[in-house]
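ok trying again, last paste got cut off:
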Amino acid sequence: MEILTAFIDIVLHLDTHLLALVQDYGVWVYAILFAIIFAETGLVVAPFLPGDSLLFVAGALCGMGSLEPQILMPVLMLAAFAGDNTNYWVGRLLGLRILNHPKQRFIKHEHLEKTHLFYEKHGGKTIIFARFLPIIRTFAPFVAGIATMSYRLFVMFSALGSVAWIGGLTLAGFFFGNIPIIKDNLTLMILVIVVISFIPAINEFIKHRRAASQ
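nice, full thing came through this time. structure:
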């Protein structure tokens, strides 16, 4: 319970915690942020890490002069892209091992083939849009790997998604994070970003539940 409370405190007070990291670790904070974004996008066991709100706050700190945007943005774009690709290859290699296992009976080849066809047709949009959806952005590249989506296409859309996600939210924080009304209510703003980020995923879940009940 204490761990959960501490995690919620970090998420809701990212401005305070991130500023403290900058003050304590200086230039090494870029490596810390790289690790967080890489883990949030590259490790299927870490979808709970802050993503959207972290980028917004980091952008706001750039606007304050505490971080350098010309360093931060390329570093985090590389982290997101590297995380995506790591996740893809884990899914691809793990998926093949699971399918080839003699006792594997849970995943049918025809289902995997349908998933493969879906990702070949809609995978680009999925990879880009998933960037802006918490949890889903962690699993989308993993599933793309299991479905053996064309790696050439995956790399292209992963790069586009990384630039759009990191650039969009960091610049939003840079330009709007230090407006007095937002700066004075940054905790509330972080909470709003978190809630808005989850709305599309919740909406899709409700749609699937309704479709399944019919």
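cool. The CA atoms of residues 88 and 144 lie 6 Å apart. The two ends are 38 Å apart (CA to CA).
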